[in-house]
Design a protein that fits this description.
170 residues, 7 helices
Length: 170
């Protein structure tokens, strides 16, 4: 594999050769030009980061398409999670015609959640806000905080577990 040596020119050749096919595949699924391009950029970034291991790969094309398929699956899971969270938060909010009591309960619940968040360790708070308030991807957070993607996931799961625990105690 030419790109396994780290040659930028060889990498550019691979990128140029595979981009059109990957783009058609991703665009067909995402229906968004920007999303398709971002996913392909991320895939090629991973390829560049793993260039030393590429020599062991039998079919570079299969490798790329498997990476893209996994990324699309992850993207779909994230979108489904966001939609469930939005649905849950919209269900939890009192409607305009509801009683004052419902609004007070909602505000108390919201206040308790914010207090629970402030009890998180600083790094977990930062990761939690990057994900929930800034809608950053796990990879973006990992790069910003300089930890692995799996460490970001662990921090998020621990944060959510802690916040839920705190809300159930009150």
């Amino acid at each position: 594999m030419i790109a396994s040596t780290g040659d930028r020119e060889a990498f550019a050749t691979l990128y140029t050769a595979y981009f059109p096919r990957l783009y058609r595949y991703v665009y067909f699924t995402m229906r968004s030009r920007a999303d398709a391009e971002e996913i392909i950029q991320d895939i090629f970034l991973k390829v560049w980061e793993r260039k030393e291991t590429l020599a062991a790969i039998r079919s570079f094309e299969d490798y790329l398409f498997i990476m893209v398929r996994h990324r699309l699956f992850d993207q779909a899971k994230q979108q489904a999670t966001r939609q469930r969270a939005e649905l849950y938060s919209s269900d939890a909010q009192p409607e305009a015609g509801n009683s004052v009591e419902g609004e007070v309960i909602y505000k108390e619940y919201h206040k308790a959640a914010l207090e629970a968040i402030t009890r998180l360790p600083k790094r977990r708070q930062l990761i939690f806000f990057m994900r929930t308030q800034q809608s950053m991807s796990l990879n973006e957070i990992a790069a910003a905080v300089r930890i692995s993607r799996s460490a970001v996931k662990k921090h998020l799961y621990a944060s959510i577990h802690f916040i839920k625990q705190q809300l159930h105690m009150e």
